[in-house]
Automatic annotation (TrEMBL):
The lineage of its organism: Bacteria, Pseudomonadati, Pseudomonadota, Gammaproteobacteria, Oceanospirillales. This is Phosphohistidine phosphatase. It comes from Reinekea marinisedimentorum. SUPFAM superfamilies: Phosphoglycerate mutase-like.
């Protein structure tokens, strides 16, 4: 059985138009979403082991803030240039090269790649994975990441910051 945990980076700032896309920081909403989502991601069964993040500042800051708000978990992560991508086939190819010793993998990345990857893996029809959104996908029969295929995973969790924000 293999499990994928997909986390879209939190809301980024467009305040400084001179920053390159990789350097955009989180805005105030993004900074609030990470501590809000952290315990719910953990409660969903995400072990926060084998964590890989896009090198974009907004993705790095997202996992840093999630980890900071779950200090008892001792979360570490690896920055991976290949996760700064926007097409689902790039994510598929990246996952197919994962070590089969890892049954669970967490990816912090970007739409539309995460959204389309989720929909292709599960056959779901999500319209959006919002910023700081989380999805959990399970394929109970998959043993080798290289065999990852479309429409074989189940969407078991879909969490959004607005689900937990104070009303």
């Amino acid at each position: 059985m293999k499990t994928l945990h997909l986390i879209r980076h939190a809301k980024s700032s467009w305040e400084n138009p001179h920053l390159g896309d990789l350097e955009r920081p989180l805005n105030s909403r993004g900074l609030r979403s990470c501590p809000l989502m952290a315990p719910h991601i953990l409660a969903s069964g995400c072990s926060l082991k084998n964590v890989y993040s896009s090198p974009a500042l907004r993705a790095r800051t997202t996992i840093e803030l999630i980890a900071h708000n779950l200090p008892q978990q001792n979360i570490s992560w690896t920055l991976c240039d290949a996760l700064y991508c926007f097409h689902h086939k790039e994510l598929r190819d990246w996952c197919r090269n994962l070590s089969d010793d890892m049954d669970e993998v967490v990816i912090i990345g970007h739409n539309p790649a995460l959204l389309n990857f989720c929909n292709k893996l599960t056959g779901a029809h999500l319209n959006n994975i919002p910023t700081c959104g989380y999805v959990q996908l399970i394929d109970p029969d998959l043993q080798n990441w290289n065999d990852l295929a479309w429409h074989t995973f189940r969407l078991t969790y879909f969490l959004r910051p607005k689900d937990f924000a104070e009303k």
